[in-house]
Amino acid sequence: MRFVPSLVHGLADYVCGAFLLAGPILLQEPEPARHAIMMIGSLVLLNSVLTDYEAGIHRLLPLRIHLCFDTILGAAVLALSLILTLSPVMAVMAWLSGLLTVALATTTKFPRRRLEQRRLVGPGAPRQ
Predict the structure, then answer these.
(1) Bridge partners, 99 (sequence order)
(2) CA angle 57-63-65, nearest 5°?
(3) What are 4's strand-pairing partners?
């Protein structure tokens, strides 16, 4: 069931992305783990900036594609927290952000205005 507004999802994406960028530095994680987690944080932020939703800036990606990327990135954070050597605090935070990302990707509802616009354009649209 999709019940999370896309604006809430967008804001959570920016918070998770910022944490994944800053967390490894602030917690002084070792080099390979730091770079891997920061790379995913960068991709989360890029995905948010390029998505066509309320929190997007350039609005190039449809929300459906964004949610697919979020699922992949959330799963990657979860997997990396098991594979890499992380401090206990960073491991817990990586798990939480990965779970939050996957949960939001599966529960975010699509904005109504986008669905209404699609009905007005295309082969099945009423003629004016």
Answers:
(1) none
(2) 110
(3) 108
